[in-house]
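Fig. S4 source data, part A: sequence.
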Amino acid sequence: MSNQLNLSLFFQRILRVAELQGRVDLAPDVESAAAQELKKLQLAEARHQLASQGRREQIQKLSQRLDDLTTELAAVTQDESRLEAMIAAQMVRMEPQSKRLLDTLRIIARNLFYRAIQPFKAAYDNFRDDHDYFRKLSQSAGVLEFGAQEVIVHLMPTSSYPPAMRRIVQGVLEGLNRLELRFPNGAERTLRFRLGARSELRLHLELTPQKT
């Protein structure tokens, strides 16, 4: 209702300006009441145009802001749906610092593996399955034999090696032993690796009496 009233007043002012303009044009040198009213109406019209321009700019800014908020709302809604799905699936978000640490450890482990495999690759000379053989060797179970000057690591592979492969692995371990690696407990004992055999295993079971 208010907008209709303002619009009606606007058109009435335009008609009145046209009417007064016609009267003033007939007597341009006469400072009549019509001329004074015309000036007032012209000033009012100028203020109206200025205010209208300001309102148009404000409407444009608000429209742009509304579009931005609509886009942000859509993005938030999408993230909320994704998080709800993750919660429903009982997924856990990893802390960034812990993830960086794990990524660093993975990179270090990968670099150490590729550095350690080089002598085996050169001795085995078969790119088809050298990684598989060496990975299984690095994951072998073993027995530690502690001595005063050294710690012997008896590696027990999960599968039996044919004679040719066994000689290659033993040669690689001998090259590793020449590096004189140290047992990591500060005792300065050297590590010596050897390839064990299943025939060397002896099972010893010792039962302790239970307390009552």
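Fig. S4 source data, part B ends here. Helices lie at 2-26, 33-88, 96-124, 130-138, 163-177.
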